[in-house]
Amino acid sequence: MRIDAGDVASAEHDSDGGSIVADTKHRIPREGTQPADLGQEMLALIARLYPICRSITGEGFRQTLRILREHIPLEIREVPSGTDVFDWTVPREWNIRDAYIKNMRGERVVDFQRSNLHVVNYSVPIHATVSLAELKEHLFTVPDHPDWVPYRTTYYQDGWGFCLSQNQLDALQDDEYEVCIDSSLEAGYLAYGELCLPGETTDEILISCHACHPSLCNDNLSGVALATFLAQTLRTRHRRYTYRFLFIPGTIGAITWLCLNEGSARRIAHGLVLACAGDAGHPTYKRSRRGSAEIDRAMAHVLQHSGRPYEMIDFSPYGYDERQYCSPGFNLPVGCFMRTPHGQYPEYHTSADNVNLMSSTGLADSHALCLATLTLLEQNRAYVNRHANCEPQLGKRGLYRQIGGQTDTSVDERALLWVLNLSDGAHTLLDIAERASLPFAGIHRAAQALLEHGLLAETRSGAQTTGVEAV
Ligand SMILES: [Zn+2]
Q1: Confidence category of residue 401, pLDDT binned at 50, 70, 90
Q2: Which class is 94-186 in CATH?
Q3: Which pTM value belongs to this model?
Q4: What spacing in Å lies between the alpha carbon of 79 and ligand 1's midpoint?
């Protein structure tokens, strides 16, 4: 099934062979869903996706996207193997049916059917009888955690191998073993999922997650679930920005998307990569390469005012797909939201990164923090004070004292004065919130009250609605 590698556009098709028009059966979030319920729903999605053997290409990835389409109207795109994408080439499609190591009594001592982590992901097919010494050259364990099975891949380099626990390895007798990996590596497609939610402006907010890991939860099903439920929430909301959700294979997926969308990628005004977002640890935000983009400041503000521990880390050119979005040619304002970062928890890239590591509270909190940040971006505008010559008299408008004593609206007088003072068309509400050391929500409420009383005017452009820089 070799397709002309250069013909990307004509090869975009739905994995089911049909049109990519969204069906109408997608679930609409229930009104009044409580955060605890939301965490449980995210956990249920993770548990459902967990057994699937995903890779950077192949049926497991498509199956995952089809399940996500039960929640959100994802379009499934396919790019043929062999397509050149910048300095990379879309790889062959990997599919696997079975794999095992059998002893001479015919018993499966390592069995893919028990866990897909047992096969080195992307292994070439093999069926042979080998000695234990020979076999050991293809075996991987986690010696420090003798019950755990590691996750290994052999992308971009043909090879084969098995992952097993140290205890399983130690139990292997010096004998001959039948090894079988019933996989195929053939010309096919790289599949990814894309959802665009149009807003008032064509400036975009990108939400990207990798969805290529097999049975691993925090890395990466937590990010997949978080992106799915954020999309579900945002679908029902009024949107100033256009939102683009990407569910892609790590690295090659981001490179492929950026290559196919090089021009329109410049519309990305803010972006978040989501990964490791479902454990019980505190939230971590990795800044974009720019370091002080609006998304960086918005996330910092939300975390700072959450009243709970969090960590901010600077950009580095390793990690997840922020590496590609923040490569110098694009330099997009895309940060990465995590809880405990990759490599900083012992279960990372092992069989212990399973559903038991997931926290429904952590998942719901990640959703709340990301949504608060996106809401901030939606509401972050600059206004002009229409009574700039000295303070307007707030008392006669019912905005002073009376309001100060009310607990229901809680429009803070300090917030009113800060908004009036700094609304010169150049300062956004986030600028004001930062300068006043007040939560953005209070500053926004004050601005709304002042707008209602005719004391503020919207600027024509909304000012700083885009973080796009010329590159
Ligand atoms: Zn990973």
Answers
A1: low
A2: alpha beta
A3: 0.90
A4: 22
